[in-house]
Amino acid sequence: MNITAIHERTLPLASSMRNAVIDFSTMTVSVVAVVTDVIRDGRPVTGYGFNSNGRYAQGGIIRERFAPRLLGAAPGALADADGANLDPFKCLAVMMTNEKPGGHGERSVAAGTLDMAFWDIVAKIEDKPLWRLLADRYNGGAADPLVNTYAAGGYYHPGKGLEALQDELRGYLDLGFTSCKIKVGGAPMDEDLRRIEAAIDVLGDGSRLAVDANGGFDLATAIKFQQAIQPYGLKWYEEPVEPLDFEAHAELAASAVTPLATGENLFSCVDTRNFARHAGFDPQRDFLQVDPVLSYGLAEYLGIIEMLRGYGWSTRRLIPHGGHLFGMHIAAGLQLYGMESYPHVFDPYGKYARGMTLGDGKVDLPSLPGIGYEDVPGVDELMRALAG
C-alpha cells in the first residue's frame, strides 16, 4: 500500500478567550487528509487529522518538507511487514529524514498532525475503532470501555465575572461532567483565588477542580500561589512555571501537597525523559499531560509511555492534552488516567462523535472504524471538503 495524496488546509481557530500567556484571537489550525491506494467500498481509504489547540497551523512544514518526503518514498516503503497496511513508525522515520536531532520546535506538531491521519488509516484498514486496535496491539487486549474526562474551561474573557464563570461550570455539570479545570495566572492572585472559591461553590468540593497557569508564573509567584491554594484540596495545579525549567519544577515538587501536572509543552521522548529525571515530580502523586499530536504523534508517544515506566510512572498518571477524539481513543486503548474535554471551547475539533454518551464524568467510545471524525458534527464536513 502507498500514500497517493496529502491535503492540508489552514483554518482559523479565532476566539476572544485567553489564558495566562496567550489569547486565541489569531490562532490557526492545520487540517489534513492523507489518501492511500487501498480501496474500501469503492473509495480510497483516507485518514484525517488536525493539530491540537495552543499551537498554530503547520502548513509550511507539512507542504514543504514532510508531504514531499512521504509522497516520494519508494513504493511499499511506508507499508507494514505484510504490505497491506500503513506503518506509522516508518512514516515518522521518513518525515524525519535530513532533520537534525534536538530543537523540536514546530516540526513535532507537523509530524503529529499527520500521524493522527496515519493511525486513522491503520484502524480503518483493520476495520476496527482505533481504541480497540491500540488495546490489541499494545495493551494485551485490555481497554477502558468508559474514559474519565473533565471539562477544561474557565478561560478569561472580556467582561467575564464570577457569575458567568459559575454559569459556565454549571453548564458542564448539566452535560455530565463531574470535574472541571479553570485558568489562573492571568489575573491578580486575589482575583484568581476568588475565582477558585466561586468554582468550588458550584462543584461542591475542591477535589473536583484543577487549575492551570499555562507556565505563566515565575518561581517565586508559583510558590506563593501553591501555598495559597493548598487549603482548597484541588485536583491538581497545572503548568505552574515555564515547561522546560526543570529546576523550578523540582523546587515546587519538593514541598507540594496539591498534586502537580504538566507536559503539554514537552515535545519528544527525550524532553520527557529529562523531565522525569530532573523535575522532581512524584509518579504516585502528580500527572503528566504530554500531547501525542504535539510531540511527533502516537508513534513517539508509545515510546514515551515505555520510557516513563522505567521511572516509576503508571499509565494511570498520564493524561493526553488536546481534548479531541484521537486522545480519547488513546486513553481508552492504553488505559490512561483519562482525557480532557473542551465543550464549546474549540468547536468543532473538541466535539464527540454522534452517539457517544457522557455521564458521571465518563464518556464511551465510538464503534466506527478509525478515529471516527466522519461522525463528528462540523469536523465531518471539513474532512469531506478537504479530501474532495
Classified in CATH, the superfamily of the largest domain is: Enolase-like C-terminal domain
| CATH architecture verdict of the largest domain | Alpha-Beta Barrel
- Sum up the overall morphology in one term: globular
Oligomeric state as shown: single chain
Please give a structural write-up.
Strands 4, 5, 6, 7, 8, 9, 10, 11 and 12 form a nine-stranded mixed beta sheet that branches. A three-stranded antiparallel beta sheet has the order 1-2-3. The chain starts with a strand and ends with a helix. The mean pLDDT is 96. By secondary structure, the protein is α/β, with parallel strands linked by helices. The protein folds into two domains: 3-127, 2-Layer Sandwich (Enolase-like, domain 1); 136-377, TIM Barrel, CATH 3.20.20.120. β4 (146-152), α5 and β5 form a beta-alpha-beta unit. The radius of gyration is 20 Å and the shape is globular. The chain has helices spanning 59-71, 88-95, 107-125, 130-138, 162-175, 189-203, 219-229, 246-254, 269-278, 298-309, 325-333, 379-387, and strands spanning 3-12, 28-40, 43-50, 146-152, 180-183, 209-212, 237-238, 260-262, 287-288, 339-341, 358-359, 362-364. The longest helix is centred in the N-terminal third of the chain and has 19 residues, at 107-125.
Quick rundown:
The protein has 2 domains: 125 residues, 2-Layer Sandwich (Enolase-like, domain 1), CATH 3.30.390; 242 residues, Alpha-Beta Barrel (TIM Barrel).
